Amino acid sequence: MAVAGDPASRRGIILAKNQLAKTYHVQTAEPIWQAKKKCPGLVLVSPHRETYRQISKAMNQIFLRYTDLVEPASIDESYLDLTGSLHLFGGDPLALAGRIRREVREELGVTVSVGVSFCKVFAKLGSDYKKPDATTYFPRDRMESLIWPMPVGNLLYVGGGFQSELNALGIRTIGDLAQADPALLRRKFGVRGEAARRSANGEDKEPVRPYHEQREAKSIGNSITFRRNLVGERDIRLGFTALAESVSERMRRHQVRCRTVQV
Q1: Whole-angstrom Cα distance, residue 2 to residue 36?
Q2: pLDDT the model gives residue 74
Q3: Is the pLDDT of residue 168 over 70?
Q4: In b/e form, how buried is each residue of 172-184, taking b as 16+ CB within 10 angstroms?
Q5: pLDDT at residue 227, rounded to an integer
Q6: Whose CB has fewer CB within 10 Å in the chain, the N or C terminal residue?
């Protein structure tokens, strides 16, 4: 099964897929026709965004029972920092992860996978490692044996294009990246290369922000798939203007000025 857009309105891509669809190598963001070719029996359902938002909010309320340091990363992911409150709930991070998973399943009827580690990057890696309804633990003292042998593309922020560039340099695992020459990474990729190497070494210092903290907008953008092809300059200008006005309104609301425009 997969959640997909409506092909009739040209939003014909896979938005999410279940574990069975993954075994057929169905991928998020690929065209529906391509996914169907891989998995002819694929069942498609339309998205229910308001339901997702409600469940996401309810899930974060469960997390807030254990810490106020709950930072939603997306509609279906959150980071929790339990450093200061773990002792209140028995002191065992794996037992607490199981307790949270159980409460979410019993109260909301959905399963979650949890990554337990000492930094955000490896917690995220753990949450993706085993699904569904599982806990993965990556302690600091087993980073080299558990994490470094993994493909470098498993690391947060290493997308397909970046992975190919790293592979071309002989960097194929997270361990390769962790031990790569910093000067080489800086020369080839700039600050992105330096940040990736730090992540591979578990040197992610980004804190988990409190749930109710006002978050600064790092970038503001908008995109749309038009129902028909835009033909000619007039069509394109009309479409561009609608997007630009939307972005401008949000910039005014956040009281920010533009430094860089990307189209």
Answers
A1: 10
A2: 84
A3: yes
A4: ebbbbbbebeeee
A5: 63
A6: C
Give SS3 for 182: helix
80, two tokens: 């929790």
Q: Transcribe 14-77 into DSSP letters.
A: EEEE-HHHHTTT--TTSBHHHHHHH-TT--EE---HHHHHHHHHHHHHHHTTT-S-EEEEETTE
Q: 132 vs 114, 119, 127, CA distance in Å?
A: 9, 22, 10
Which residues fall within 8 angstroms of residue 52, CB to CB, at 6 or more apart? 75, 76
In whole angstroms, give the CA distance from residue 46 to residue 9. 12
Q: What is the mean pLDDT of residues 229-249?
A: 83
State pLDDT tens for residues 98-134: 999 999 999 999 999 999 999 999 999 999 999 889 9
- Pairing between strand 70-74 and 114-117? unpaired
Give CA–CA dist 201/121, Å, rounded. 10
DSSP letter string, 126-151: HHHHS-SS-EEEE-GGGIIIIITTSB
DSSP 149-181: TSBGGGSTT--HHHHHHHHHTT--BHHHHHTS-
Q: What is the mean pLDDT of residues 142-157?
A: 95
The kind and range of the H/E element at 103 are helix 93-108
Highest-confidence range of 15-29, 95-109, 204-218, by mean pLDDT? 95-109
Residue 108: how many other CB atoms lie within 10 Å:
15
Q: What amino acid is encoded at 28 in this protein?
A: T
